[in-house]
């Protein structure tokens, strides 16, 4: 079920992650073909600044998503709503500060710290001014996309992404090719496209039909620190990449020239489309990781990482092979003359940079897990190495001898180093080389319940329901649970899981399964039933039928009467029902 869920959500998250990359591709195409190489240099100079905006957005989105996941796992709805409201409020305030900074830098020509090239700087100032218009929708749009994913309404984000791409291309053609607005037109087109992206998503939350509701009056501002604390380590790498971009741009300007910045920006923008794939993979994994940590669910947590190793990384290897083979055709989209230095510099970027992507998938997943589980030392070390130290150091070391290719090779060496750090961390914590997934992840022994205190089962038919009910009773008796409680646990599972098979399996033509977990904890029996059928809240069903009609849903009534506690949630399109039976 974990594999199906991850791959069901993956296309939407990849498309979302590709929105910014498409902006880069479109800007690069119109800059190189209709404005000139100097405009492409301006796009490259903006890269570190754009990364800073992305970093702050990632801190807020990542911290909020992980914190919401934990509150969902703990069924704390009020705290979850506060996180949503805080995210939007803080994102808006930060956006306004950046708009003021962009306007001042561009109007008063204060960008000399980014480039000493007097030809490029005026073009860059115009580009920066246009980008200021799109900061608010960029940050709020990223936040809305994350929360829409939690609400299982990723289709709205997909529609918004497609609309953004179409508007961006149309406005670039109008502003750059027709009206000759040059660098300002490049930035303005993407900025206005982002407002369309935001507006389409915002309709869900403004309609009043969403689960998340913004409430300014009930904001608990002090919780912002917790969002930042959780989100900062995962986004620290992006923060460091801002500094890394400035350093690399300076090295390229000194050893290669402005043409090196143009080539690097072009290669990065092409790669941005494909980097959306690892970003999408992380986005679909992040919520399951955080919910699993909140529920202390060992099995789902390790399953996510097994999917990462067995499915995500092999898929990425196949894709990167295609990128390398298509390096020349991709380059010709932007530069037609092979005799120009920028041409081969870009080609080699597209041949070398893809090799870093499988390493990045592993690093991103372990960083996310570290955020959720509080492994501060590991995530700060990975962020520092991945964000700035490795790439900047390897580039500075290699650029005198290798020139432009040093930047590309440094990115691959960075991936090798971070992978070795992850393995070394597990080796030190376990005091031996990791022998299985739990040891590689360094999951604490007291996390959740031990394997001998839980049982994981899968239901595919009504025959499975009956046999599993008997196995649950046997499991409870083996743990010293009283015969009556063991019987009630088996009966509860038979009623609830049977209801899913009878009704949920028949609502559509898809193949469904029910994942069951039985745990013995604190003397009680905890039944967790998870299915991928249409949303169904048994508690709401009882309320709808009313207390007078006692013959309807009699099985559900019986379980609610017998159970010590029952909690229902719908997470990422999964029904999750937790039943606690007194031992």
What does this structure look like?
With 583 residues, the protein is α+β, with helices and mostly antiparallel strands. The protein contains 20 helices and five strands. Helix 1 (2-35) packs antiparallel against helix 2 and helix 8 packs antiparallel against helix 13.
Could you name the key traits of this structure?
single chain, 583 residues, alpha+beta, Heat Shock Protein 90, 2 domains, five-stranded antiparallel β-sheet, 74% helix, elongated
Span between termini: 29 Å
Per DSSP, the total helix count is 20
Give the averaged pLDDT, no decimals: 85
Coarse structural class: alpha+beta
User: Helical amount among residues, as a percent range?
Assistant: over 70%
- Runs in which pLDDT lies below 50 for 5 or more consecutive residues are none
The percent range for strand residues is 5-15%
